[in-house]
Every structure is written in C-alpha cells, then in structure tokens.
Known about the structure:
The chain is mainly alpha-helical. It contains 6 helices and no strands. The chain is globular and about 40 Å long.
Amino acid sequence: MAAAWILVLMPVVLGLARAGPIPTSKATTTGMGCNIGRFKSLSPREREAFKKAKNALEESLLLKNWSCSSRLFPRTWDLRQLQVQERSIALEAELALTLKVLVTVTDPALGDVLDQPLRTLRYIHSQLQACVPAQPTAGPRPRGRLHHWLHRLQEAPNKESPGCLEASVTFNLFRLLTRDLKCVASGDLCV
C-alpha cells in the first residue's frame, strides 16, 4: 500500500518542485528585465546628493532674472490618478525631460554638485525604460490624462524658456524622487 502512495504522490511532488515558488504578492516588474521595485527609496547618500544639487540649483536660479507664466508640474499632478500600467510611461517621460534639462545647465559651479545626481537619474531612467512598453508607430495612442501629461512634457521645451524649464525641473526634483518614483516602484500598492 505504501508503494502505491509513493507512485501516486511522486508525480505531484515533482510537478510542484518544477513549478517554482508561489508568488505572495504582485511583483513590480512589467516587462523583460524590468525590476523597478528596487527604487522604493534612495540611499541616504543619494538623497543627500540630490538635496545639495537642488539647493545649489535653487541658489543659481535666484541669481537669474526669470519669470514663468505657468507650472509645468502642477500640484495636482499625481501619478496615482493614472492606471498602474500608465504610471511608468509618465515617469519615464518626466525623467527624460528632467535629464534633458539638467544636462544643459551651463553654470560651471554646478558641475561637481550635479555629477552624482545625474548619474543616479540616468541609471534610474535606463532601468525604467525596460519597464515601459514600446509605443507603437500606428494604432491606439495614449488617451485621457496620460495623453495630456505626455503632450505637456513633450511640448515644454518648445513653449517654456530654458530658465523656466530649469526652475520647473528643479522644484519638481524631490517629488519625482520621493513620490513618483516610489509610486511606480510600488506598483499596484500605490493608491
């Protein structure tokens, strides 16, 4: 009788062993090679580097004579308003614009201060790109709030002065890192 049970249970045990572990919660990966969950929080050293960069950028902006008519990133801009699968697309566009603007900062005094934050932002951006589905050249385009946000980010360099872009990106930097990135990294747990 024991031999019969072994014959019955052996295929079941082997089948479960090949199946691998059973996930306990939904992972924050959306594509091949995508593991954005590691960015739920930055290290204290990275946060300090961003704080120094933001302070230096703000000081440099105070010395410039700029007047901006609109807010590129309004206070009501909240990734939680988007569907979970849309959030990484919006964050990727936000990060791309932030990098584009910060790379063009010409103040030589900011070079050393911006080096580490720019490296970190480039790394996060490269990892996030693995999570963003390729946009089809034909077919359905993003709609609704996501479409509005993407359009706004895409048009910003054409509509805003370089000083206003720099100011908008600078004042949005910590929200991008502490709220938006954390939300995307948390996946469907961000509500």
